Q: What sequence folds into this?
């Protein structure tokens, strides 16, 4: 068999370049503009590049609660990911290894839970969180985000555990491992890409979420990035420099996490197709 | 003698083992389901219940049962009707734009491109970025006064549009911005489907004299049916459930031009504090999702029950 070495046409490459520019240019524009002074941003004679590396926009962020928002988002994302993964690994393993009545039905529920309208749960959750005394607390958000991440994470973990041969695990059990130990030592390592994909999914969602963070949190200093930046946007629509500087700082961890975990992102899509 | 004792012990041990084996799955699955029940199942039932009440945050503890009054009121409410219709327009245009674009992107990425991995990785970036950042960037780019897009248009157009503040432009722009963020996800799913298609299928079709369009409709589409169905489902349900993608840009405005059911429900609940009516709106959204889910399972699960069994 002759192997295909020829690259696709020039047209396909040109189209790919257009796509990449479309995805990247808005971010580049944000980065460049964040170094521009107010007259440069709003003046009549605009240049593509900033005149100098002006850092005033970044310094002005210190007047806002931006850095608290940032820290809060990190805490919520880390807490959610830890708890959700722990529960999803256990449940995913349960679904993959034991067949019992209603297994398929339960899985359907797990998948359908993905589609619940967030807005529908906003009111009852608001009431519940209030009763629990978790209103205006990051812990309340972590709890809510965990449960929203769980269905998909369970589904993903189950698919990965199914691919791990039962024989290796049985060997470990015969050698005197408990099931818990076998799961941790034998089953989990080969399923690590699934764990990473589930982590990426949970982190992305925790950073993204706005509806609940907006309704459950009152104190400005306890807001997460989504809510905090949205409120700053309402406040400083004329001071774009400061907002763009905030945008650049939000973008950095997203790119770092994404750069490190990007190969697992496709697993998220794959997890949905498989099974 | 001793054998009797050991027998009894063995039986007891076996019984315990059987008992443990029966309850072991529960041990693994229970923690997750307790959290799910508390945070999802209970609130769903509670929301359905509240939709039959006259409930307001302004009058705590004074909820009264009013039957289907909230629903009757909604059907007569012109704002609800237009938001309901606009939700379909919103989801329909999202479907056409996003799945159409995703197909084109995935087909391109499935070719042998120079630096294909880098291209694919770069294209996914808008998807991993939180919506608030998308709102920040695009509200700046589309700013009528200091935004670069109108700077570019000003030499050509005497009076460039005010985009998100214009009742005619706001919804189409939001559809495009949403597509900018969400299309990459659909493209990745479709690409995963495309990569599963064996080359031989195309070669055979070519030998049978099928042109490019025919190969697309007769080989590609049937082969990626599952991916397409999944993308269709996630796009429609994502659009109907979308709240951030509208609220952070226009809050349903200008003059209600971008109000869909989610923003209307939110406004009713947390601006007007009418929890009963807002619950009724969200139950309507829920019913739309239910219909979608049933259609999906009927189309995908129904046709191949064997393949989709538990193992």
A:
């Amino acid at each position: 068999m002759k192997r295909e070495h020829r690259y696709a046409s020039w047209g396909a490459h040109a189209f790919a370049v257009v796509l990449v520019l479309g995805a990247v240019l808005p971010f580049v524009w944000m980065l460049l503009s964040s170094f521009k002074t107010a007259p440069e941003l709003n003046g009549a004679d605009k240049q593509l590049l900033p005149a100098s590396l002006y850092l005033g926009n970044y310094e002005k962020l210190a007047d806002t609660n931006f850095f608290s928002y940032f820290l809060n988002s990190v805490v919520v994302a880390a807490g959610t990911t830890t708890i959700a993964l722990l529960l999803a690994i256990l449940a995913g393993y349960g679904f993959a290894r034991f067949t019992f009545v209603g297994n398929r039905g339960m899985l359907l529920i797990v998948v359908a839970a993905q589609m619940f309208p967030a807005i529908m749960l906003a009111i009852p959750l608001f009431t519940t969180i209030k009763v629990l005394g978790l209103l205006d607390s990051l812990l309340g958000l972590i709890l809510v985000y965990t449960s929203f991440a769980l269905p998909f994470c369970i589904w993903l973990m189950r698919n990965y555990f199914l691919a791990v041969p039962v024989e290796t695990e049985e060997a470990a059990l015969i050698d005197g491992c408990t099931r818990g130990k076998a799961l941790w030592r034998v089953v989990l390592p080969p399923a690590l890409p699934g764990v990473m994909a589930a982590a990426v999914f949970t982190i992305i969602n925790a950073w993204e979420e706005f509806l609940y963070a907006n309704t459950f949190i009152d104190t400005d200093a306890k807001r997460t990035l989504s809510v905090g930046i949205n409120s700053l946007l309402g406040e400083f629509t004329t001071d774009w420099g400061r907002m763009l500087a905030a945008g650049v700082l939000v973008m950095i961890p997203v790119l770092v996490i994404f750069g490190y975990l990007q190969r697992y992102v496709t697993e998220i899509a794959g997890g949905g197709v498989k099974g | 003698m001793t054998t009797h004792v050991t027998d009894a012990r063995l039986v007891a041990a076996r019984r315990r083992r059987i008992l443990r084996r029966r309850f072991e799955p529960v041990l693994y699955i229970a923690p997750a389901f307790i959290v799910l029940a508390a945070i999802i199942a209970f609130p769903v039932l509670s929301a359905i219940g509240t939709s039959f009440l006259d409930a307001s945050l302004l009058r705590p503890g004074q909820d009264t049962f009013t039957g289907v009054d909230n629903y009757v009121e909604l059907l007569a409410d012109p704002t609800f009707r237009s938001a309901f219709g606009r939700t379909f327009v919103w989801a329909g245009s999202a479907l056409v734009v996003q799945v159409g674009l995703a197909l084109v992107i995935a087909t391109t990425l499935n070719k042998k491109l120079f630096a294909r991995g880098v291209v694919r990785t770069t294209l996914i970036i808008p998807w991993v970025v939180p919506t608030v950042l998308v709102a920040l960037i695009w509200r700046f780019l589309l700013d009528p006064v200091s935004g670069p897009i109108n700077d570019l248009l000003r030499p050509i157009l005497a009076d460039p549009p005010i985009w998100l503040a214009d009742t005619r432009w706001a919804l189409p722009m939001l559809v495009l911005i949403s597509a900018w963020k969400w299309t990459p996800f659909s493209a990745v799913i479709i690409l995963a489907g495309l990569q599963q298609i064996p080359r031989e299928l195309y070669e055979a079709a070519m030998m049978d004299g099928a042109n490019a369009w025919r190969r697309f409709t007769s080989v590609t589409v049937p082969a990626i049916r599952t991916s397409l169905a999944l993308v269709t489902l996630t796009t429609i349900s994502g659009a109907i459930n979308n709240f951030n993608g509208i609220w952070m840009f226009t809050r349903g405005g200008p003059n209600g031009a971008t109000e869909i059911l989610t923003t209307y429900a939110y406004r009713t609940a947390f601006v007007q504090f009418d929890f009963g009516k807002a619950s009724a709106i969200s139950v309507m959204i829920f019913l739309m999702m239910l219909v979608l889910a049933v259609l999906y399972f009927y189309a995908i699960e129904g046709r191949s029950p064997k393949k989709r069994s538990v193992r």
Observations:
- Residues 304-311 of chain B have pLDDT under 50 and may be disordered.
- Chain B touches chain A through 90 residues (CB under 8 Å).
